[in-house]
Amino acid sequence: MRTFRISHRTQYTYDKAVRFGVHRLMIRPRDAHDMRILDSSLTVAPQADIRWAFDTFGNSVALLSFHEASSELIIASELVLRRYGFDEPLVRIERDAGPYPFDYDPQDSVDLAPLRVIHCPQDQTIVTEWIKSVMPVVPTGSLQVLDLISSAIHETFTYRRREEQGVQSPARTITTASGTCRDYAYLFMEAARSLGFAARFVTGYLYDPAADTTPQEADDSNAVSGAGATHAWADVFLPGAGWIEFDPTNSIVASRDLVRVATTRMPEQAQPVIGTYSHDGAVLLDMDVQVFVTRSD
Questions:
Q1: Ramachandran category for residue 143: left, alpha or beta (phi over 0 → left; psi -120 to 50 → alpha)
Q2: Looking at residue 281, what is its pLDDT?
Q3: Which residues, listed in sequence order, are joined to residue 264 by a DSSP beta bridge?
Q4: The predicted structure's pLDDT at residue 217
């Protein structure tokens, strides 16, 4: 069990006052058996009416309606939550997970069907060849197959942040051997789906133990990538074990340090903040995002 304090602040700055359309936020997790929200607050400037709703996937969504113009928009979320998990998750998952190849239960197959569909069929040849190159011999366990793919992304690709919006295609991630956490998660999902697994995209936060250590205590060998901003990974439904987290950016499986906010079928459905503003010649000067995740046990 771990207790985290999460501060997520997004600031947009324009060269003159603009009027904002409805903004949609996905920054609040839902309570579950593995996570409990202890305290939360959401502050918006300029003031806005806030309406909460659940989306198609059951994620908690805030809808903001503004009444005044401003040259600045600030959205600040504060969370205190408790994250539960096993001390040795891989041992427990391996005990419950089924073999590979596998068959989903007939009822599960119906419900999981949309999450098994390849989203980029034009990239499948490249993705399939890449899987063969990193997995010339296919393991006999489902967990081992997925862990091998996740580890290959983590060990052979170069993690980099980029300013462009959206997620790059799986083929581009493979050919450039680089990408962001969102790109890694997307490639992992498409690879898992091509092997018959149901996979979904997850957006949330990542706890970096270095955030709670002094420079003298820090250990570079345990450094993680993706902290300090919203993070992304994938969930895969394993027969016998259920939904399991795979973070190829850090080669993490089922960790308490991953704080799930929302799960979707595709990456574009999981943007933390999305909205519009009246242009009228206005120019967005800067967007600054700051995320801090610290333990408060």
A1: alpha
A2: 86
A3: 201
A4: 47
Residue position matching structure tokens 């308490």: 256
Residue whose entry in the numeric block shows the structure tokens 């242009």: 279
Residue 216 has a pLDDT of: 46
> What is the pLDDT, as a whole number, of residue 215?
45
Report yes or no: 63 and 24 within 8 Å, Cβ to Cβ: yes
pLDDT value at residue 209: 87
Residues 6+ apart with CB under 8 A from 45: 70, 72, 73, 74
d(CA 269, CA 216): 41
Which structure tokens are listed for 9? 């602040």
Query: What are the beta bridge partners of residue 262?
Result: 203
Measure the CA–CA gap between 240 and 192, rounded to whole angstroms: 17
* Pairing mode of beta strands 178-179, 35-45: unpaired
**Angle CA 182–5–215, to nearest 5:** 80
d(CA 22, CA 48): 10
Ranges of the chain whose pLDDT falls below 50: 215-218, 221
Domains and CATH numbers, the chain: 2-83+272-295 (2.60.40.2250), 89-255 (3.10.620.30)
The two three-digit tokens of residue 231, written as one number: 């993070």
Tokens found for residue 249 = 């950016």
Q: Omega before 139 cis (within 30°)?
A: no
Work out whether strand 158-159 and strand 178-179 pair parallel, antiparallel, or are unpaired.
Answer: parallel
Contact 145, 239 (CB under 8 A): no
Find all residues with CB under 8 Å of 254, minimum gap 6, and list them: 85, 86, 89, 90, 93, 244, 245
